[in-house]
């Protein structure tokens, strides 16, 4: 199969590309430059540098032509700080790209789409009492991604969201997701405790 991916040079996208290529699939990815130094990016993956959000519909349709599957391995998470209201940024980077890409995928004849999502979505559904989506804009954006996928699916276009577990991995040249957690714990450890 021919696979078009957004975010193929990130931690998850890179590993997905490596696995897909090892199974004989062709992977093309749009990615923001520069490549993370030292990252194990598969040499066989075709990389198109650029911001997909700045490309015209016609440019995107050309990129999608001849592909069978679309994978979204991009977006932003809680590592990135935005001015209030932060939900606007999550909509811009996590939701709007899918709302734009799905109709273009259909127009280009792509039949399947896979979104690399988050286990937060799973936890939100199995533990609604936690009200995670109501309390956290990032988690809400992940639930909204799933809703966009559900609306886009039809008899000719199937969508799938992988609710990936928390990944404690690293990629050379990129800040690990869990770095901010370690920094917070270190800060709390050094704060004097007052009662």
Order of helices and strands: EHEEHEHEHHHEH
Mean pLDDT: 88
Number of helices: 7
**Major β-sheet profile:** 6 strands, parallel
Principal-axes shape call: globular
Structural class: alpha/beta
Please count the beta strands (DSSP E, at least 2 residues each). 6
The order of strands across the largest sheet is 3-2-1-4-5-6
Please state the CA-atom Rg, rounded to the nearest Å.
Answer: 18 Å
Q: Name the poorly predicted regions.
A: none
> Approximately how much helix is present in the residues?
40-55%
**How big a fraction of the residues is strand?**
5-15%
Span of the ends, CA to CA: 62 Å
Walk me through what this model shows.
With 195 residues, the protein is of the alpha/beta class. The protein has a 6-stranded parallel sheet with strand order 3-2-1-4-5-6, sandwiched between helices. α1 (11-22) links the parallel β1 (2-6) and β2. It is globular, with a radius of gyration of 18 Å. It starts with a strand and ends in a 5-residue tail after the last helix. α2 (57-64) crosses α3 and α3 packs parallel to α6. The protein has helices spanning 11-22, 57-64, 87-108, 119-126, 132-135, 137-152, 179-190; strands at residues 2-6, 26-31, 46-49, 69-72, 112-116, 158-162. The mean pLDDT is 88.
């Amino acid at each position: 199969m021919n696979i078009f991916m957004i975010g193929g040079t990130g931690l998850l996208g890179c590993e997905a590309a490596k696995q897909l290529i090892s199974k004989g699939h062709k992977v093309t990815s749009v990615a923001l430059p520069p490549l993370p130094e030292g990252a194990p990016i598969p040499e066989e993956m075709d990389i198109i540098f650029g911001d997909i959000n700045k490309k015209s519909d016609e440019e995107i349709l050309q990129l999608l032509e001849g592909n069978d599957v679309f994978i979204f391995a991009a977006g932003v998470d809680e590592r990135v700080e935005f001015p209030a209201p932060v939900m606007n940024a999550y909509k811009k980077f996590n939701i709007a790209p899918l709302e734009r890409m799905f109709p273009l995928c259909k127009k280009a004849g792509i039949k399947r789409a896979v979104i690399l999502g988050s286990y937060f979505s799973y936890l939100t559904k199995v533990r609604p009492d936690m009200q995670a989506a109501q309390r956290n804009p990032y988690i809400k954006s992940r639930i909204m991604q799933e809703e966009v996928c559900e609306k886009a699916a039809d008899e000719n276009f199937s969508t799938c969201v992988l609710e990936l577990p928390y990944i404690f991995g690293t990629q050379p040249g990129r800040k690990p997701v869990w770095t901010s957690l370690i920094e917070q714990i270190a800060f709390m450890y050094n704060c004097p405790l007052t009662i």
